[in-house]
Each structure stands twice: as C-alpha cells, then as structure tokens.
C-alpha cells in the first residue's frame, strides 16, 4: 500500500511522571526519573499567558516547545497539527455544569478557550507562526490519524511540520465518559527531506481493513493506558525511546498505520 | 515524492440550513432574498436573539443500527446526507473505489456537545450522566465523523477538523492532500454544527450576539446570529467527473494575533487568500464572486471589507450569506462552499441579506441585492477563533 517517508527531527513528551523525552528514554531503560512540577512549564508562552492559560494549552505548548527546540528549527516556519481525543475536558465540564445551572454566567474567556484549536491558537500567537495550523480529532485513533495528517502535510507541501498530540485528565460526569485519568502529551517535528537535523526516517504505510489487529488487548494497568493519547502513542514512543523498531498504530476505526524507524541516510 | 496541486472534481454536494433541506431550498431562498432567521426558540433558558434553526432535525431519527450515535447533531448529519441523493453518490464512490480508498474529513466546532449539555441538565441521583446518555462516543469531538464513517461504511483515512469557524473549509485541503499523495482516490468532506447552549450563551458572554437579525457589512450591524447547518461534498480526480465544478485551490493561515479578534489589518486572511489564488493559478481579476466570512461582528466585517476593497477589481461581486442562514460556525465552511458552487452552476451572486446601508469600508464589489451574472470562479472565506483562516477557490469545469 501507499507509503510516506518523513524525517523525525525532534520529540517532546510530558506527563505527571515524565518531564521530557530524555526522561522517557531513561524510564524505558529502567532508570529512576524525577517527576516534573505539577504544571507543564510551557515556557514558550509569555508569562502572563502562562498564568492564565488552561492546562490543555500548557500541556500542548510544553511538548511542542520541547520538540521544536530539539529540531533547532524556527517555530514560526512550521506548519502545525494539534490532535486531541477530547480537547479541553475540564472546560467542557465547567461549561456544561454552568449552562445547566446559570447559563447567563458563562465565562467569556473559558468559552473562547473551549475551542478545540485553543492550543494551536496560543502556540501560533506565542511563536508568531502565520503558517497553516490545524486542530483535529479521531477518537481513540487521534494519535495515528494525527501522525498520518502531519506526514501527509509534510510530504504534500514539502515543508517541516509540528505534530502535537495531547489529552488532559477528565473530571465530573464528562470525565467519567472519557475515562482519561491522567494528562499526557507528545510532539514530533517531521521534515520532508533528510538533513543534519534528522534523527530517524519514519516509513509510514496504511494497512486497511485491520480491525482485528487494532483491537486493544486486555488492560494491564500500565500507566500509559490511563490516557487516550499515551495509550495510542505508546508503541511508537517506546520505539523512539529505544531508537529502533516497527509498530502499528490506529489511524481510523479499521485503518492501521505501520510505522517503521530507519536510520536517516 | 512531491506532486504539485491538481484541481479536483466536486462530483456531488449538498447543503441543509435554516433555508431548508437540500440545494433547491437554498437556491430558491437565496434568489428570492428570503432569509431563514427566527426569534430564538432553542436555548434551554431564554436568550433574546435570532437564530438560524433547521426544521425537521428532531424528526430525523437514526436507524436502530446506529443508535449508539443518536444525538441532535448526528440527526442533522443524517438529514443532510439524505438530500440531493448525496448518500447514494457517496455509496457509489465506495463501490467504485473500495471502502478503504475513500477518505472522510468532516469539520465541526462543537460536535454533539448539545447531548453532553443535556446530560448535565439531567444528571442521575449519583450526579452521573443519565443512563440513556451514557454513550462515550457522543461525548467527544469525533462523534460526527465517527457516525458518518459508520453510516457510509467508509474505512479510509477519517478525520475530524475542529478549528472553530474555519473547520469545514479546511477539510477540502486535508482531502486534496490525501488524494494528491495517493492515500485515497476520493473523499467525502463536509461539516455539521447544531445549535447548543454552549455557543448561544458563549457568544452572548463575549457580547458578539446581535439582538436583531444579523446585518453583515451594514454600518449599523450589531453582531452575529447563530445558525446550524449540514453540508457534504464528494471530491474525486477530474477524469472521474469532467463536467463537475472544481476545487481549484485553497489557502490556510494563522493570524498569530489574538484568540478571539481578527488581525486588525487582516494579515492572516490575506495570506490565506493569496495562498488560494497562487495554488489555483488565478489573478484577482479572474474572481467573479466571493462568499465572505461576513459574520456581522463589528471587527470581522471591517477587516474583511477592507481586504476585499483593496484587493479586487470593481467587477468582482462579494457578499456574506450569513444574513440568510446565521453563522453556522463549524458548518459555515461547507455551507458557504455549497453557495459558491451554486453561484457557479446557476450564475447567481447572492446579495448581502440583512444589510440596508453598507459600511463605509465596503468598495464597489459589495452590492445589497443578488444578481444574475456569469460566475466562472468563486471564492469562499472562512475565519475562526484562534486566528485560523481558510480560503477556498472553486471554478466551472473547462473543456
């Protein structure tokens, strides 16, 4: 089937236990890692925005900033794709609760922060990026669909692309529906051509009618199962931490995406 | 591996809005200057404003096989899919290309949040989602695309785009890239957004909602009227439908300015416009009609009017159709793409419904009334919160 080749130039990771990609690598290699502060630092945001921004934005901006810093590229030059299964569940919970009780008291700031593209908006404003930005979702395939979308954009436009995939922990009746119990974000910078920045080449192949192979196994209690983004990104994140491997992630309900890591040359 | 942009055939399309169900209803209302706004009879608590509500949504029950997706937004999607034989055309494409070779890219800003809102109004004794609404699939942004993928039996790339009010314009770009790179042979694109408390009270909190029917580009405009709509289009390579109107290009950009107000000089809007014209290989003098974003908010219309006035010749016609339908948010991109395609097919440039005295910023491109004229090339502008901009270029089939 059709294949796409892109070059990975940067990786960002954040969870309550992992401050960055180096921490993920250490952990995968069995080392102890120090957990980060409770709030993602998101230093790419101006200080006043950092104080006001919701957690969903801090998380996305944090991992985006890490990946772009690793790539050495100028954030303003990157097309960007922000993927999330649920968007800002905490704001949705607040809004639905307020609308049920006192709709006229809805906060205008929380409303404009509720749009699915709020992280893309804050990121492009903070970095002065006027390139195309997108905010997408694909249910439990949001990571794989995001990777497919970012790679498609990268190859079609022949421009480097920032992919950010993140979900925060839910709360209230809506959190009960999402089952997202922890926050996790990851980001990749992808480029169409090999150069000195390239860490790995990723060969992506669509594998249709793959419903059976995409069935999740029984829960094992592993930390990455507590969040839809980490659950779906885990096979690739693990390979990236090891520096090699091939894996399959869901790109849609029955569509699998095979991701093979190669040395870049 | 790189392949340059190639125009695509829009081999089928449909739209459903406050103007009615299907393209004939839209066209008849646009031609008769008959708007679809009504006093708000939707929100769960009173709110004095006008809305563009679609009649018949409540009756469009989903078949039992898709009951897990039942909610008002998916009912509007179901109603919309059945207009203009769209569902038959989409199923025919699946038959011709194979289910895994047809992509599905749909835009929505709020998906089925209306069902989540309802759940919070009717929490059970334990403060949990009531039993009837304990269906996780509908409490997520992908509810719409997940439902339509199942309803059409599509197994190709499947994506929800949710960039506020540019959502269902950007879907044309996602689909074109998938087809260009050979990852799909055709794509169903579109969008659905339904009225809900979140947007009615949210825009009200931002003081952007007009107390009267919205008046795009009027010097005395007072804000937006919110509407709802469903629309779909089928994109294929031109050889599959050589007589169909075409997607000639698109442009996407970010303002990098502010979360809820546009760039004061329309910089992002202009970048998207220039990107669309460049991709389509068009000069501004070739543009016959522009369906504007034209929300009737003070700032958007001022910035967009200035951009059109300084960029296009007097021969270009420009109008907003939001006075007819209200601002249909995440569905505005596909609804207004359908209006641009209707303009090309029927040679009708819709008027600026709701506007009686044009803002001083409006140049000769703006007229109050619709008019019959040849339209070979039409653009559609869509701008969203977060400074997210898209511009689509459509054209008549050329021999």
TrEMBL record, chain A:
Residues 34-46 have a biased composition (Low complexity). Residues 30-50 are annotated as: Disordered. InterPro entries: Ketoacyl_synth_N, Thiolase-like. Pfam families: Ketoacyl-synt_2 (PF13723). Gene3D superfamilies: 3.40.47.10. GO terms for molecular function: acyltransferase activity. Residues 36-209 form the Beta-ketoacyl synthase-like N-terminal domain. This is Beta-ketoacyl synthase-like N-terminal domain-containing protein. It comes from Dyella solisilvae.
Automatic annotation (TrEMBL), chain B:
The keyword Transferase applies. CDD domains: KAS_I_II. One of its GO terms (molecular function) is 3-oxoacyl-[acyl-carrier-protein] synthase activity. GO terms for cellular component: cytosol. Residues 1-396 form the Ketosynthase family 3 (KS3) domain. Pfam families: ketoacyl-synt (PF00109), Ketoacyl-synt_C (PF02801). InterPro entries: Beta-ketoacyl_synthase, Ketoacyl_synth_AS, Ketoacyl_synth_C, Ketoacyl_synth_N, PKS_Beta-ketoAc_synthase_dom, Thiolase-like. Pathway: Lipid metabolism; fatty acid biosynthesis. Keywords: Transferase. Gene3D superfamilies: 3.40.47.10. The keyword Oxidoreductase does not apply. Coiled coil: none annotated. One of its GO terms (biological process) is fatty acid biosynthetic process. Belongs to the thiolase-like superfamily. Beta-ketoacyl-ACP synthases family. This is Beta-ketoacyl-ACP synthase.
């Amino acid at each position: 089937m059709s294949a796409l080749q892109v070059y990975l130039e940067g990786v960002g990771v954040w969870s309550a236990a992992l401050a960055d990609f180096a921490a993920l690598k250490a952990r995968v290699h069995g080392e102890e890692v120090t957990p980060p502060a409770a709030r993602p630092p998101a230093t790419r945001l101006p200080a006043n925005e950092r104080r006001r921004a919701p957690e969903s934005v801090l998380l996305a901006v944090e991992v985006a900033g890490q990946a772009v810093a690793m790539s050495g590229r100028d954030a303003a030059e990157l097309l960007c794709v922000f993927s999330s299964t649920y968007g800002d569940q905490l704001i949705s919970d607040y809004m639905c609760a307020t609308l049920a009780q006192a709709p006229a008291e809805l906060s205008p700031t929380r409303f404009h922060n509720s749009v699915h593209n709020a992280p893309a908006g804050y990121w492009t404003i903070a970095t002065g990026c006027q390139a195309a930005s997108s905010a997408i979702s694909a249910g439990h395939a949001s990571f794989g669909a995001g990777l497919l979308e970012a790679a498609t954009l990268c190859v079609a436009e022949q421009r480097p692309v920032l992919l950010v995939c993140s979900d925060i922990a839910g709360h209230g009746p809506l959190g009960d529906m999402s089952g997202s119990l922890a926050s996790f974000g990851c980001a990749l910078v992808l480029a169409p051509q090999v150069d000195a920045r390239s860490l790995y080449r990723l060969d992506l192949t669509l594998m249709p009618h793959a419903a059976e192979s995409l069935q999740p196994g029984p829960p094992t209690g592993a930390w990455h199962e507590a969040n839809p983004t980490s659950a779906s990104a885990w096979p690739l994140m693990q390979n990236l931490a090891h520096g090699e491997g091939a894996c399959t992630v869901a790109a849609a309900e029955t569509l699998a995406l095979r991701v093979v890591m190669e040395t870049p040359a | 591996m790189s392949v340059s942009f190639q125009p695509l055939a829009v081999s089928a399309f449909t739209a459903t809005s406050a103007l009615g169900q299907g393209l004939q209803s839209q066209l008849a209302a646009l031609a008769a200057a008959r708007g679809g706004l009504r006093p708000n009879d939707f929100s769960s608590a009173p709110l004095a404003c006008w809305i563009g509500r679609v009649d018949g949504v409540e009756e469009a029950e989903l078949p039992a096989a898709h009951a897990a997706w039942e909610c008002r937004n998916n009912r509007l999607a179901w109603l919309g899919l059945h207009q203009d034989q769209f569902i038959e055309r989409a199923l025919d494409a699946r038959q011709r290309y194979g289910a895994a070779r047809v992509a599905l890219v749909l835009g929505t800003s709020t998906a089925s949040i209306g069902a989540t809102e309802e759940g919070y109004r009717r929490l059970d004794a334990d403060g949990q989602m009531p039993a009837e609404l304990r269906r996780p699939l509908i409490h997520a942004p992908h509810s719409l695309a997940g439902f339509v993928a199942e309803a059409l039996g599509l197994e190709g790339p499947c994506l929800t785009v949710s960039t506020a009010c540019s959502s269902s314009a950007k879907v044309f770009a996602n689909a074109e890239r998938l087809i260009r790179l050979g990852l799909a042979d055709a794509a169903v694109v579109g969008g659905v957004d339904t009225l809900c408390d979140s947007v009615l009270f949210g825009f009200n909190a931002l003081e952007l909602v007009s107390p009267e029917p919205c008046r795009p580009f009027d010097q005395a405009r007072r804000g937006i009227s919110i509407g709802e709509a469903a629309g779909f289009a089928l994109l294929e390579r031109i050889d599959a439908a050589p007589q169909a109107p075409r997607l000639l290009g698109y442009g996407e950009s970010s303002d990098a300015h502010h979360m809820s107000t546009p760039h004061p000089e329309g910089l992002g809007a202009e970048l998207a416009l220039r990107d669309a014209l460049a991709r389509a290989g068009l000069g501004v003098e070739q543009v016959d009609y522009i369906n504007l974003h034209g929300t009737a908010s003070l700032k958007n219309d001022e910035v967009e009017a200035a951009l059109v006035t300084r960029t296009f010749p007097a021969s270009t016609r420009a109008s907003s159709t939001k006075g007819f339908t209200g601002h249909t948010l995440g569905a505005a991109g596909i609804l207004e793409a359908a209006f641009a395609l209707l303009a090309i097919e029927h040679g009708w440039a819709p008027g600026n419904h709701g506007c009686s005295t044009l803002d001083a910023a409006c140049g000769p491109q703006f007229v109050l009334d619709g008019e019959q004229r040849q339209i070979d090339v039409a653009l559609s502008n869509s701008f969203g919160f977060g400074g997210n901009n898209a511009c689509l270029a459509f054209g008549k089939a050329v021999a």
